[in-house]
Design a protein that fits this description.
The complex is a heterodimer of chains A (about 110) and B (about 110).
Chain A: E1 4-7, E2 10-14, E3 19-25, E4 32-38, E5 45-51, E6 56-59, E7 62-67, E8 72-77, E9 86-96, E10 99-104, E11 108-113
Parallel strand pairs in A: 2-11
Antiparallel strand pairs in A: 1-3, 3-8, 4-5, 4-9, 6-7, 7-8, 9-10, 9-11
Chain B: E1 5-7, E2 10-13, E3 19-24, E4 31-38, E5 42-50, E6 53-57, E7 64-68, E8 74-78, E9 87-94, E10 104-105, E11 109-113
Parallel strand pairs in B: 2-11
Antiparallel strand pairs in B: 1-3, 3-8, 4-5, 4-9, 5-6, 7-8, 9-10, 9-11
Classes of the chains: A mainly beta (about 110), B mainly beta (about 110).
Chain lengths: ~110, ~110
């Protein structure tokens, strides 16, 4: 089955600096890669996603890159702010027998220090 | 607010007991997913339903079962509870349950087994 590895598990950055979280996946059938942010006491919330026919996607301070050949994708957050502090999950998804099979990474706890 | 609701928010029970967690998907979504989140395991996919029918199974124990009702709400039943079942249980929903769809997560139910 699909295996998604995510690192680092924890990341501390100074406010205003950039943060990068990296994920690798194993199944070449994966074609959809969402990123979720989970704040304390809440459920994961989608922040950005990328499909396999795109190499990069950007939304304000957040960007995601995908390298299909190497089977890895990354989340980049620029000009970090204290409210970016949360746990971030990457995921890889593909269709299997008509349903969506999603595998999540272990999560990265990001701390932005004011 | 994702539009997915889960009840109860917190649940404390004893080993050997049985509990039922409830989820209402976003309006219009036909597919419901259940996940277990524990500290050392990240988000583990348990089971998926689509329009009342089981669509896919993940790492769901035999002591656990779920169903989706005609009004599309779903219930996750956990029986013969063990200490290790203590975790956050999330429900997510998506429109059709196919790859590339955003999954919207509920706020979760925190289960503590004593």
């Amino acid at each position: 089955g699909e295996n998604v590895e995510q690192h680092p598990s924890t990341l501390s950055v100074q406010e205003g600096d950039s943060a990068v979280i990296k994920c690798t996946y194993s199944d070449s059938a994966s074609n959809y890669f969402p990123w979720y942010k989970q704040e304390l006491g809440k459920g994961p919330q989608l922040i950005i996603d990328i499909r396999s026919n795109v190499g990069e996607k950007k939304d304000q301070r957040i960007a995601v890159t995908l390298n299909k050949t190497a089977k890895h994708f990354s989340l980049h957050i620029t000009e970090t702010q204290p409210e970016d502090s949360a746990v971030y999950f990457c995921a890889a998804s593909f269709n299997s027998g008509g349903y969506q099979k999603v595998t999540f990474g272990i999560g990265t706890k990001l701390q932005v220090i004011p | 607010d994702s539009g997915v609701t889960q009840t109860p928010k917190h649940l404390i029970t004893a080993t050997g007991q049985r509990v039922t967690l409830r989820c209402s998907p976003r309006s219009g979504d036909l597919s419901v997913y259940w996940y277990q989140q524990s500290l050392d395991q990240g988000l583990q996919f348990l089971i998926q339903y689509y329009n009342g029918e089981e669509r896919a199974k993940g790492n769901i124990l035999e002591r656990f079962s779920a169903q989706q009702f005609p009004d599309l709400h779903s219930e996750l039943n956990l029986s013969s509870l063990e200490l290790g079942d203590s975790a956050l249980y999330f429900c997510a929903s998506s429109a059709l349950g196919t790859s590339g769809e955003t999954q919207y997560f509920g706020p979760g139910t925190r289960l503590l087994v004593l």
